[in-house]
Amino acid sequence: MCYSIHISDVCSGAVWTGDNIGDWSHLKISNPMLLSLNLVGITHSGADVGGFFKNPDTELLTRWYQVGGGWLWVRGSVFDLL
């Protein structure tokens, strides 16, 4: 699995959208990013649910899991810097 794209990824690779932020704007762009990857033939793609940086509030995390239920795969990932 990678978060960079190469011409050979269309045939065999899985792509993850990279480290995102637990913010409403990143939830908003997750679907367009995954749909764009699907349009070019990279159907095995997914995103971090809840963001990788900046812990989301309960409402955002709930919505993110609801949206992520329709993706091929998700990665539950909340990163807490103490």
Could you spell the SSE succession in H and E letters?
Answer: HEHEHE
Strand order of the largest sheet: 1-2-3
* Share in β-strands: 5-15%
Give the proportion of residues in helices.
25-40%
Radius of gyration using CA atoms only:
13 Å
Q: N-to-C terminal Cα separation, in Å?
A: 28 Å
Q: What structural class do the secondary elements suggest?
A: alpha/beta
How many H/I helices? 3
The poorly predicted ranges are none
Number of strands: 3
Biggest sheet details: 3 strands, parallel
The overall pLDDT, averaged over residues, is 77
Shape: elongated
List its salient traits.
single chain, 82 residues, alpha/beta, three-stranded parallel β-sheet, 3 helices
Describe this structure as you would to a colleague.
- With 82 residues, the chain is of the alpha/beta class.
- Helix content is 38%, strand content 13%.
- It contains three helices and three strands; from the N terminus they run H-E-H-E-H-E.
- The protein has helices spanning 9-12, 24-39, 58-68; strands spanning 15-16, 45-49, 73-76.
- A three-stranded parallel beta sheet has the order 1-2-3.
Summarize the structure.
With 82 residues, the protein is of the alpha/beta class.
Please render the helix and strand layout as text.
Elements: H1 9-12, E1 15-16, H2 24-39, E2 45-49, H3 58-68, E3 73-76
Parallel strand pairs: 1-2, 2-3
